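ok so dumb question maybe but i'm new to this and my supervisor (M.) told me to 'just get the structure for Guanyltransferase' and walked off. so i did the thing. is this what she meant?? sequence i used:
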Amino acid sequence: MTDPTAAKRPTQAVILAGGQGSRLRPYTDDRPKPMVEIPGTGTPIIGHQLTWLAEEGVTDVVVSCGHLAEVLQKWLETADLPVSVTTVVENEPLGRGGGLRYAAARLPHPDRPWYATNGDIWTRFSLRDMADFHTERDAIATLALARPRIPWGAVQTDGFGHITDFIEAPPSTFEINAGVYVFSPEFAARLPERGDHERTTFPQLARERRLFGYPIPQGAYWRAIDTAKDLTEAAKELAALGR
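this is what came out, is it supposed to look like this??
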């Protein structure tokens, strides 16, 4: 029997890869942030993302380039890629929302849903399940939600103030935007021509109750690579997981 939800899952995606990556210097002095490699993985972050997207049924990807765009474009042209890739470069800064809209205009199927991911995210979970969650709720936009670990040790106390335990780097009690999305076809038209969609489009969709959050499943790996310390920590964590 054919799964009716499978036909509604995205086969196209946008990767936002235009950031300056200033907090990752010197690694980003000669390459954009998505081209940085986590030690021991054997592939840049974007290479991992393209493999993950292909495994989740994606066939076409638009990569939005910016900082050192030519370095990323050259790598994409020479690498053995599992998907068809198109690159776009903003002629002038459009902001996060404007840049996303500009890239989405190059998707091969504007009448179909699509995934998007920030170019500095290293994760693995079922995008198919996230897409089904999105469809079941008739969402226009669905954000993956993560609980990152707090970088400090936490102290647990009882009602009298006695310290009862010390917990090293516990998960945050708050969920954050994990930088991975599912969007319905009409989402692109809701994006600003310039500016930040998280200050305009997302709040409007939330008021309309068409914006949803999908918690990344417990045990799935997720990390944003923003600093040199993130690279070191990610290398240790992935090695421990045998990846």
